[in-house]
């Protein structure tokens, strides 16, 4: 067996072990302190893998990995916000949200793995696919910038509409149960609908994010590693941001700008070479700036809400 086989095997074992630990640590209602600790741990693990890449493959691969990780981690913020919309729409109880997020994380990892394989094969077989991916990212970024909140409305999900037409759904949750007996027949609980919407959402995010990282590197190992480490800890990140999501009004514009920039980079790669370090710095500045501006613009919201509740 060649070295690549063992390298991939080790990475998959590490990622699988990380997912198991992630799923075993956060259960039921999650306190902010616990979520912060685990977010820090998973972020440190993801960034720390850069040192492994540096020692194994050198500075160029390490830079590509770190850039890809930061890029995918930034785009995962959008996942978190949409998950919040889904939970609010279905009125998912806090103690059940961790289970729904568990399947969201697993689905995201599997789908990204599939799309990485497909993307790698397409780019290797058809050189012109780089322009298709780049154009897709530019269009996606523009659409995101001009989208409104209704874009993430689960009621418009086609899969959910079809599901409701053919499957009877109960009006209330039954713990972690997927089905219950109502009036002598078995019906699905709302949790099935929640997982269906999360699964279809994972597909959309995988289609958006995988072409983006191919703008940084075409190395399938780096692409998968960056995606895997970015997705791990997504559940903890959700609970960190749960109470402040409504304050990041300008983050979507930052993410839109990133998609457009990496799309243009892919299209113009043969004309203008942009180093991964430049991409890394650009992503960090745009995302950090968008978050800072959002927090500054909404800094009086908590005070205003407190004053209104006191009246």
Write up what this structure looks like.
This protein is an all-alpha fold. The chain has helices spanning 3-25, 32-57, 59-90, 94-125, 129-145, 158-166, 190-214, 220-231, 234-241, 251-267, 276-297, 301-310; strands at 179-182, 185-188. Strands 1-2 form a two-stranded antiparallel sheet. A hairpin with a 2-residue loop joins strand 1 and strand 2. Helix 3 packs across helix 8 and helix 3 packs parallel to helix 11. The N and C termini lie far apart (72 Å). Mean pLDDT is 82; it is low at 305-311.
Structural class: mainly alpha
Please give the share of residues in helix.
over 70%
Question: Strand order across the biggest sheet?
Answer: 1-2
* Main beta sheet strand tally, sense and closure: 2 strands, antiparallel
**How many discrete domains?**
1
The ordered H/E elements are HHHHHHEEHHHHHH
Low-confidence stretches: 305-311
N-to-C span: 72 Å
Beta fraction: under 5%
